[in-house]
Amino acid sequence: YQRENFLKQSEGQLPLFNTDPRKMEERAKEKLSEGGWYYASSNAGMSTTHLANRQAFHRHRLIPNQLVDTNTRSTKTTIFNHTVSAPIGFAPIGINKIYHPSGESAVATVASELNLPYCLSTAASTSIENVASANGTGPRFFQLYMPHDDELTISLLTRAWENGFDALILTTDTWQLGWRHDDVATSNYAFYRGFGAEMGLEDPVFRKRCQADGIDPDVDVVKASVKWIDSVWHGRAWGWDKIPWLMETWKRISGGRPFAIKGIQSVGDARKCVELGVDGIVVSNHAGRQVDGAVASLDALERIVEAVGDKIYVMFDSGVRGASDVVKALALGARFVFIGRLWIWGLSIQGEEGVRHVMKSLLADLDILMGVAGFNGVDDFNRDILESGPKNY
Ligand code: FNR
Predict the structure, then answer these.
(1) 319 C-alpha to ligand 1 centroid (Å)
(2) Nearest C-alpha to atom 9 of ligand 1 is from which residue?
(3) Catalytic site residue 60?
(4) ipTM
């Protein structure tokens, strides 16, 4: 990708747009409706957690090595039995049609083309079946927001499995949206939950639920969509006692494929996942959108890896804005990193082309960084390549 880029530059061609995250954010703001912008950009409270996520990356610096033969370096790695291009995946993001009419299908198309894992949100605006067809043979996982309706959960998991989503990631931190001032002040929830939630509307169990409420999902699309989003962000907490049921149900449906929990920030919760036999965790604070003033995700990662890093597959997200952040998270013990806002900005600016440009640029950034800093593969990322300053609260 980097050579492709440099070749274009040498011919005087400009890239599609500047991939500096700050500049992309500005462009996306210009492109999006007010509601779309608030949904994408708002964080919990004063954005303290969002800022802490970024600050935590500044605490660690990479130590490059010179004159290393990196000519045959590779960014490749494996996740849940898939060999993929890089330790970088598409984080689950809800309601993509807010950002661009091509929505989830555009993103899943690019993920497959780049051989990076795609994670489909339960709050998606495109059905499981349509995303699967856009994603083709690409590696893909299903992210569950667990409704308080077991029959519906089973139906979703069955559809996901039958359509090639071969790992389940349960998100535990967002059964209720956090207090996000901009969203609250504009009653934005009323805006975005109306976006055609094909995901629900095409589900046979959910259609039954609509009919029971006198809603014809083919006619009262907005009402059905609102009902769907309300059953996803339902506002009623689950407890750890539900996890064995979900894990067993998924394992039975999928023939034993991996089950992971996303949203883990405490060592205690990470230990519980190990005790319950969960296959993986995503250390994440939902990009700082749920609990204002929470610990930085990267700081949580460090502690969690120390406690259980050798017992469970640890993944990471929240605040990654470039290749050096990916390398730092892996050096601290994450095995894989997910990206959210970067590709949302790409999708908002220029649909499928925009997502492709952002993710190819990130891959080029990673490849170049590894080359010039003396790293040949993901196994070279460990604590020795970091100089870590004191925690800066
Ligand atoms: C999210 N995230 C999220 N997570 C999830 O499990 N299901 C979802 O539907 C969504 N939706 C969503 C929408 C928007 C607009 C954002 C910004 C985030 C959280 C997401 O998966 C991931 O944890 C963070 O986005 C990662 O942080 P960065 O890369 O955005 O900083």
Answers:
(1) 10
(2) 94
(3) no
(4) 1.00
Ligand 1: distance of its center to the CA of 301 in Å?
17
- Does the global pTM surpass 0.95? yes
Q: What spacing in Å lies between the alpha carbon of 122 and ligand 1's midpoint?
A: 12
Helix/strand/coil for 150:
helix
Question: Where does ligand 1 bind, in terms of residues with CB under 6 Å?
Answer: 39-40, 91-94, 121, 123, 143, 171, 262, 284, 286-287, 317-320, 339-341, 344
CA neighbor of 88 nearest in space, from 77, 80, 96 = 77
The predicted-structure confidence for 82-101, as pLDDT tens digits, reads as follows 999 999 999 999 999 999 99
CB 316 within 8 A of CB 284: yes
- The CATH code of the domain at 2-381 is 3.20.20.70
Ligand 1 mutation target, pool 88, 282, 286, 359, most atoms within 8 A of CB:
286
Q: Which residue from 62, 38, 121 is spatially nearest to 340, judged by alpha carbons?
A: 121
For residue 72, the SS3 value is coil
Q: pLDDT of 296-341, one tens digit each?
A: 999 999 999 999 999 999 999 999 999 999 999 999 999 999 999 9
CB 314 within 8 A of CB 280: yes
The token duo for 146 is 């667990």
